[in-house]
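GTPase HflX, pasting as requested.
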Amino acid sequence: MDDAAYDARSANDRAVLVSLVTSVQKRSEAMAAYSLQELVRLAETAGVQVLETMTQHRETPDARSFIGKGKVEELKQRIEQLEANTAIFDQELSGAQVRNLEAALDVKIIDRTQLILDIFAQRANTREGIIQVELAQLSYLLPRLSGHGKNLSRLGGGIGTRGPGETKLETDRRHIRNRISDLKAQLSEVVRHRELHRERRRKSGVFQVALVGYTNAGKSTLLKRLTNADVYVENQLFATLDPTSRTMSLPSGKEIVLTDTVGFIQNLPHDLIAAFRATLEEANEADLILHVVDSSAEMRSEQMRVVDEVLEELGAGGKERLTVFNKMDLLPPAEQEELLVADGDYIRITAYSDADLERLRHSIQEKLLGDRKTFRVPVGKGDVISLVYRIGDVLEGEVDGGDMRFEVRVNKDDYAKMGYLLAAYDESAAGERQRGEN
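C-alpha cells follow.
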C-alpha cells in the first residue's frame, strides 16, 4: 500500500476515547488520567483523529457493556453528534463486550491492546518484527473471534485491521491455530540465528550494553549520538520497533556493542511481551543495562516502575544497571536536584550535549571495566600475560627487569571468575594488604 493510500485511510478514523475507573483498581485518579492521556498519544500515533475523551467511574466493570448501559447511551449520543466512527477503550475488552458495544453503538470498537498491536503492525519492517507482530495479534484475537462480527465486515480499513487483516480473522480457529504454530516455528529459527550472533559476540569478548526504557525516553537518539548510527529518530511512541546494534568506542579506545530495544509502556500486552521476548532477550544477554528515563515526564516514577517490572518478567532484574536520566534540558533547574533521586548508580544528561555524552561514556567504561590494578608478571609467563589482557583493558605495559608490569582496568565479572589465577601477581592487592597491616 502506498503512503497516499495509507494516509487517506487513516484519516477516516475519527474516534471517541473511553476510560473506566473502578474502585477495585490499584491506581490513583492521577494514574488513570495519565493512562488516558497516553491513550490519546497512542491513537494519534496510529493515525486516528481524536474527537473527545470520556471517563466512567464504577465499582466494577459491567460484564455486558464494560461501562454500563447508561454510559453507553451517553457515548452513543456523543458519537452521533461528533460523527465518530470508532470508539477506543483504555482497557482490554472481552469478545462479548466488543460484540455488545458494536451492536449498541454501530461503530468500530478497539481496546488499548489492539491499538498497541496495530501500531506495532505499522512499525514492523524486518522479517522478525513482522512475524512477532502477527503472532501477537493472532494470539490476542483468537479467543475473541466471536466478538468481532461487524469489525470484520468494515471494509474501510484503519486501526484494528492492519497485520493479519480481515481475511485471516474470517477463517476458522483451526486455521489460525495452525498459523500460530507456523509463526512460532519461524520465530524459533530467528531466535536460533540471533543466539548464534550473541554467542559469537560472547566468544569475541566484546561487551554488550542494552538500552532499555519507556517508549519515547530518547533511546534511539542516544544510540545515534553515541555511535553515529543511521537510525530512525522521531518524537512519537514506538518510533523504533526492531532492535538495532551498533559499535561504540569507550574513552579507552575499547569497542563495545550498544543495542537499542523496543520501548516499554503501561499495560504492554502480554501477548506482545511473549512474541517480542527474542528481541527483549538482548537485555538478558547484556553485560550492562542502560535504563533511559525521560526526566521531564510527568509520571516519571511510574514509567520507571513499568520498566523494572518488564525487566523482572524477562529475568533481567538483577543485571548490572546504570540509570540515565535523559532530557534534563526540559526539566526546570529547581526540580533537577529535588526530584531526581534514584536507587543505585545514575547519571543526568541531555542527549544533545557532547560533554554529557562524554561523561556517559566514562560512566559506562567504569561500570564495565571496573577498578585499576597493577600486575607484575615474569616475562616467561606467557599464559599469565595472556590472561592479563583477557581480564581487562591494559592501560600501560612496560618491562621492569625480568618482569612485565601492567596497569589494567579490570572487568569486575571476569576478575570474579579468574582473578584468583592472578592473585600471586597482583601488586595492587599486596599494597592494599600492606596498608591494612600498617
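Note for the archive: Confidence is low (pLDDT under 50) at residues 1-11, 152-156, 431-438.
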